[in-house]
Amino acid sequence: MLAGAMFLVLFDSLAVATALPAIGAELGLSTARLQWVITLYSLSIGGFLVLGGRVCDLWGRRRLIAASLALTAAGLLLSGVASGLAPLLLGRVMQGVGAAFAIPATLASAATLFPDEPWRSRVFAIVAAAANTAGVAGAVGGGLVTSYLGWRWVFLVVAPVAALAALAALLVLPPDRPPSRREPLDLVGAVLATGGLLAVIFGASRIGEVGPRPVDVATVVVGLLMIGALVWWERRVPYPLIKPAVVRSRRLVASCLAFGAHSAAYAAVVVVGSLLLQDTYRLSAAQAGLVLAPVLLGALASAAVAGVLVRRYGSRPVVTTALLLGAVALAVVAVSAGAALWLLVVCLAAWGLTAGPIYVALTRECVGDAAPADRGMASALFESTTHIGGAVSIAVYLTMLSAGAAYATTQLVGAAVAAAAVLTTLLVLPLGD
């Protein structure tokens, strides 16, 4: 059930990208306006994750998973029958918010329902495999559905499945324990967290797309100021959105830093790699996507065995080894630009094999270390680092490329970030359980 929830809320993240040309042709949308179909979905996930984590801890995980899947189903249905851009974008926002609420509730449930090994690492491996399977299935299935049934069925095929999954969550997952005391939702903190994350991610994304324009730089600055105000506010409110005890955890801090660095390396592999393939190897966007597919396949394969590695060797050795190997693989990709395409594919697959153990081990450390009542927030903070790290790193990479930097130089920066995360993980992440 948990793996299915993760799959359903992430399937359309790549499936819709393959349907964009067909959507634009039918609705008469320009490329600039069409891009909002992807952008608003990503913004909704990144912006509402922290709020979703807190609501999960206050309201209950089972109910939130069911409600978020129902919201996802409604958003899919609205997108599938949309007659114009406005209802399509509204449906995408509903899907993004549904995902932002479902992801922390799913990870928190995994840690709470399976507190002991070997099941804890097994379950995190299954959930990670489901998330990666969603990416692969979306990339492949989205194109097939669009070609044979039309772009609307990319949404409509999944909508009834999500609705049934919402009902199944209520039937399959055990009831949430009632909280010892009712705490109010910190509305000011929710506004500051959501607004700050939205501003940082949106501003960084725009900088990556069109360059460092003053308005976009100002948007990032405003977002950072809102996050700074959130820190100030949370120390003074009696029932904070983010409890200080949560962010004082060394396991959480180390996990978030390592995952953010991994996300920056992922952006160097996928985003910069796609541009490299199209520019240097003269591939089309679709062909570049096929060449990059081994990244997702490698992550899927390695997630399946990550639990065994974590139980045998521990999280810190697994994470540091995987980060180091990923940095080396990305560096080889960088210096191999222009070499035989098969060599590049092998390096990409090698990098993908490092991704599964990183996600499984860090999720286990971050979420499992939090108190049961705070696991939704810990999951949300962990997942938000991938959106912030990805958006900021993409902005940096594309700014470097527009300034004349070579693809190799840009990807080497990503490799250096991953290598630096090896040191921070060794210094911050405690050894052992």
UniProtKB/TrEMBL annotation:
Keyword tags: Cell membrane, Membrane, Transmembrane, Transmembrane helix, Transport
Membrane-spanning intervals of the chain: 34-52, 64-90, 96-114, 123-145, 151-173, 185-205, 217-233, 253-277, 289-310, 322-351, 387-405, 412-432
Highest taxon, organism lineage: Bacteria
Key word Nucleotide-binding present: no
Primary location group: membrane
Cellular localisation: Cell membrane
Gene3D superfamilies: MFS general substrate transporter like domains
PROSITE patterns cross-referenced by the UniProt entry: MFS (PS50850)
Residues of the Major facilitator superfamily (MFS) profile domain: 1-433
Secretion signal span: none
InterPro entries associated with the record: MFS, MFS_dom, MFS_trans_sf
Keyword Transmembrane: yes
Membrane topology designation: Multi-pass membrane protein
PANTHER family in the cross-refs: BLR6921 PROTEIN, MAJOR FACILITATOR SUPERFAMILY MULTIDRUG TRANSPORTER MFSC
Protein known as: MFS transporter
Native source species: Asanoa siamensis
